[in-house]
Amino acid sequence: MVTIAAIIYEPGSTNKNKTGSWRTFRPILDNKKCIKCENCYIFCPEGTIYEDKNGDFKINYDYCKGCLICVNECPVNALTSTREEK
Amino acid sequence: MMDKKQFPREEYFAPGHRGCAGCGASIVARMALKTTGRDTIVVNSTSCLEVFTTPYPESAWRVPWIHTAFECGGAVASGIERAIKALKKRGKYKDRKLVVMPIIGDGGTADIGFQALSGALERGHDIVYIMYDNEAYMNTGVQRSSSTPLFASATTAPAGKVSKGEDNPKKDMAMIAAAHGIPYVATACISYPEDFMRKVKKASDIEGPTFIHVLQPCTIGWGYSTENTIKIGRLAVETGLFPLYEIENGEFKITYKPAKRKPLKEYIRMQKRYRHLTDEDIEILQKHIDEKCRLLGLE
C-alpha cells in the first residue's frame, strides 16, 4: 500500500537494509594504534564508525560498504584492510 | 589524548542508504546535518542524493525532508521558509531556530533549478542553500551539466577522435550567487570537514539567503577507486582548481591557502574522465587555473 502523498512516516528507516553485504574488502581498526583523530569517523559516507562507551572507535560491519576511505585517511595506519571471505 | 570531542556525535543521516561505496554526496549530507542538528528541514530536488536516500518506503533522513521536482528546489524552500514565518507570527515554534536547508546537486542548481534558486536568493528568504557539486548528472549516468569542467569526458560529451570531452569551462555558481548581493556565499570541499562545517554553521546563523558550493568527488563519474574520494577532493583544493573562500557581506576572504600549489597533473592523472588528455592539454588547463588563482589572490 502506498501512503497518501507517498509520505514516509519512519525516519531513518533505511537501516533495515544491511549494506554490509556489498563489501569486498573489510577495514580493520586497531584500537591500540588509534590516536582518535576522528578522520575515519567524519569521512565515513555511511556513518558506520561509532564511539563506544570507553571512547574507542568501532566499525559497524552491518552497514560498512568497504569503500576503504577510512584506511586511506588514517594518519597512523591503525586501519588495515583484508579481503572479505565467506 | 584529546578530551574535547571534535565532531558532534548525533547522526541524522541513517546508514543503509543505497549510495555507492565511497559516495561523496552522503558525506556532504552527514556533515551538514551534524552541524545544523535536528531543527533542520531538508529540501531535496531530484538528484543522486534524493534517489539513493529514499527508496520508498524507506528514508535515510532523521530530519523532516521533502522531495521536489528538479526545477523547484529554491521555490519549495522559499515556501517552507514563509510558512515557518507565518507560524511563528501565530506563536508556534517561537523559541526555535528552524533551518531550511536545500541540499541540491549541480544539475538542480546550475542548470534546471537555476531560476528558482535565483528567485529565492533575490527575494531574500532565510535559507541555507547547499549545492553539492559532482560536476555532471551522476544520477542518470554521467551526462554533462554546466558544472562539468573543461576537457572532462561525460556520456553526452564523450572524448574521442573529434572531441576532447566537454568544450566549455565550468560555470562559477558561487560567484553567480554572490552577484545577487546575498549576505553569505562560500565554497567548501568535503575533504576539509572543519572548514565546511564552520561555513554551514555560519550560514545557518545568518538571517537571509546563504549559498554554499561544495565540491564532492564522485567515484562513478570521475572514475577512480572508492578509497580516494577524500584524497581527490584535497588535491582539487591544493592544486588551486577549487579555491576555498567565503564572501560575507561583500567581503572576500580566502579560507584555505595551500602553502605551495601542487601541479594540476597530479589531480588529472587520478581520474578516468581525463585519461584522454595529453600533457599539452593539461598545460592549457593549468594556465586557466593559474589565471583564476591570480585573480583570487592565491599565488
Task: Walk me through the structure.
The complex is a heterodimer of chains A (86) and B (299). Chain A has helices at 39-43, 69-73; strands spanning 25-29, 49-51, 57-59, 79-83. Chain A is elongated and about 50 Å long. With 86 residues, chain A is of the alpha+beta class. In chain A, 34% of the residues are buried. Chain A is built from two helices and four strands. Chain B is an alpha/beta fold. Chain B has one domain: Rossmann fold. Chain B has helices at residues 24-36, 48-53, 73-89, 106-111, 114-123, 173-178, 193-205, 219-222, 229-238, 264-268, 279-296; strands spanning 40-45, 65-68, 99-105, 128-133, 184-189, 210-215, 244-248, 251-256. In chain B, strands 2-1-3-4-6-5-7-8 form an eight-stranded mixed β-sheet, with helices on both faces. In chain B, strand 1, helix 2 (48-53) and strand 2 form a beta-alpha-beta unit. The longest helix of chain B has 18 residues, at 279-296. Classes of the chains: A alpha+beta (86), B alpha/beta (299).
Shape by Cα distribution of chain B? globular
Give the total of beta strands of chain B.
8
Could you tell me the mean pLDDT of chain B?
93
Which second-level CATH architecture of chain B applies?
Answer: 3-Layer(aba) Sandwich
Structural class of chain B: alpha/beta
Distance between the termini of chain A: 37 Å
Q: In the CATH scheme, what's the topology name of chain B? A: Rossmann fold
CATH superfamily of chain B: Thiamin diphosphate (ThDP)-binding fold, Pyr/PP domains
- CATH architecture of the domain at 31-86 in chain A, by name, is 2-Layer Sandwich
| CATH level-1 class of chain B | Alpha Beta
Largest sheet of chain B: 8 strands, mixed
Principal-axis shape of chain A equals elongated
Percentage beta strand of chain B: 15-25%
Spatial strand order of the main sheet of chain B: 2-1-3-4-6-5-7-8
Rounded to the nearest angstrom, the distance between the terminal CA atoms of chain B is 37 Å
Residue-averaged pLDDT of chain A: 92
SSE string of chain A, helices as H and strands as E = EHEEHE
Approximate strand percentage of chain A: 15-25%
Gyration radius of chain A (Cα, Å) is: 16 Å
Helix and strand sequence of chain B: HEHEHEHHEHEHEHHEEHH
- Uncertain segments of chain B: none
